[in-house]
Amino acid sequence: MTTPSFVIGIAGGTGAGKTTVARLVARSVGDAATRIPLDNYYEDLSHLPFEEREGVNYDHPSAFEWELVREQLSSLLDGSPVEMPTYDFEVHNRTDETTRVEPTEVVLVEGIFALYDDAVRELCDLRLYVETDADVRILRRIERDVIDRGRDLEGVIDQYLSTVKPMHERFVEPTKKHADLIVPEGANSVAVGLLEERVRAAVTGTASGGSNREPIEESLGDRIATDSEG
Ligand SMILES: Nc1ncnc2c1ncn2[C@@H]1O[C@H](COP(=O)(O)OP(=O)(O)O)[C@@H](O)[C@H]1O
Ligand SMILES: Nc1ccn([C@@H]2O[C@H](COP(=O)(O)O)[C@@H](O)[C@H]2O)c(=O)n1
């Protein structure tokens, strides 16, 4: 049985580069890492017709099934596999299928609200906030939503102005204060390289310290005291 030893939370605005960072970092340790995209945990809206699902505010924390996120992450950290929901952006709903996720050494939880929920944050050893300017993010999003998510330009712009932008400012950006590290631009090669080294060390068991399950005062306490003694 594998019990994950290193959990990374990757938050940031839409289009910031969270998924790209998570993919690159996960790839560097192959099967030893699992990605948990929080998008898969949008509430099941099967009870609503498509036209109503189209109008939902998907950038409010209440759009997510947090109980399921907490439950499945805890199971993985206890070494048990989970049946992760899957999401279809074209129909604004979960699919009927789930993906079996086995616990691995490294777990990467990524999504706009990866640092929002207290319990989820507590489960993370390293918390990242990917920070990219809003103009770059909207340009990336337009391209992605039109090409990959079956949206039209007018709809993407309307959604951005009515919910995505205000919710980002109200709920997503403030979670930056919970980050241990801020990653500029997304797939920033220096940051990704350092993260790759850190997860490789976690997998080979050579990592020293740096776990946030231990409060900073405890992990750095001696060094802070020594430094202040001059
Ligand atoms: N540093 C970067 N420079 C240029 N493009 C990037 C960078 N990081 C990510 N991207 C691109 O931006 C787009 C959005 O990235 P993605 O990882 O899907 O964002 P998020 O998961 O935060 O919504 C993708 O097309 C990705 O290839
Ligand atoms: N049916 C949905 C569900 C979510 N969204 C948008 O996805 C964004 C989060 O995903 P990122 O990969 O961009 O981080 C979020 O901003 C939602 O607006 C959607 O458009 N439709």
UniProtKB/TrEMBL annotation:
InterPro entries xrefs: P-loop_NTPase, PRK/URK, Uridine_kinase, Uridine_kinase-like
GO molecular function, one term: uridine kinase activity
Binding-site residues, ATP: 12-19
Catalytic activity of the protein: uridine + ATP = UMP + ADP + H(+); cytidine + ATP = CMP + ADP + H(+)
Superkingdom: Archaea
One CC-aspect GO term: cytoplasm
Entry keywords, A to Z: ATP-binding, Cytoplasm, Kinase, Nucleotide-binding, Transferase
Enzyme class: transferase
Record-stated family: Belongs to the uridine kinase family.
Stored PANTHER family: URIDINE KINASE
Name the UniProt record assigns to this protein: Uridine kinase
Organism, scientific name: Halobellus salinus
Gene: udk
